[in-house]
Amino acid sequence: MNQKNLALWLKIIVIGVGIAGLIIYFWLIPTIGKDLAVEEFAYLFWPYLITIWITAIPIYWALGLAWKIFTNIGFDNSFCEENAQYLKKISILAACDCAYFFVMLVIGIVMNAVHPGILFIALFAIFAGIVIAVATAALSHLVYKAAALQDQSDLTI
Fold first, then answer.
1. With helix as H, strand as E and coil as C, how does the chain read?
2. pLDDT-derived band of residue 43, with 50, 70 and 90 as boundaries?
3. Which of 80, 127, 135, 153 has its CA at a distance of 20 to 30 angstroms from the CA of residue 38?
4. Above 80 in pLDDT, residue 155?
C-alpha cells in the first residue's frame, strides 16, 4: 500500500468516526437519555445533554487535525515537525476534554445528581480520553524525533 492509498483510507476512517460521532451525540444520546430519564433527574436532561455536546468540540477539532496529518502522509511527509505539533495539539485537546468532563462529573456528584451507572460510564470515558492523550503525546515525541533524524539524514551526502 502506498502513501496515497494509506492516507485515503485514514481519511475515510476520519469521515466514518465523524459520522458515527454525529449519530451518537445528536441522535443516540438524546434518545436514550429521554427513554431512561428518571423523574427525579428529568430537570437535568438539557444541562446534561449540553454538557455532553460541549465535549464534542475538542473531538471534532482533533479529527480536523488528524485529517491534516493524513494529508501530510499522502504527500509522503509522515515524519515532520508539523505532524508532531498536530499530535501534541490532539493530546492537549484530549486532556482538556477529560478535565472538563471530570469537573462536570464532580459538580454533578456534589449536587447529588449523578446516577451510579452514569458515574461508571463517565469514569470509563475519562479513562479512555486519558489513554488517547498519553498515546498521542508519545506519538508526538516519537514523530518529532523521527523528523529530526530525517532532517539530519537529508543533510548528509
1. CCHHHHHHHHHHHHHHHHHHHHHHHHHHHHHHHHHHCCHHHHHHHHHHHHHHHHCHHHHHHHHHHHHHHHHHHHCCCCCCHHHHHHHHHHHHHHHHHHHHHHHHHHHHHHCCCCCHHHHHHHHHHHHHHHHHHHHHHHHHHHHHHHHHHHHHHHHCC
2. confident
3. 127
4. no
Segment 62-81 shows an average pLDDT of: 95
- Specify the amino acid at residue 126: I
Distance CA 140, CA 143 (A): 5
Mean pLDDT of the chain: 90
pTM listed for this prediction:
0.89
- Contacts of 56-63 with C-beta under 8 Å, sequence gap 24+, read 56/21, 56/25, 58/93, 58/94, 58/96, 58/97, 59/21, 59/93, 59/97, 60/18, 60/21, 61/93, 62/89, 62/90, 62/93, 62/94, 63/14, 63/17, 63/18, 63/21
Residue 45, pLDDT > 90, answer no
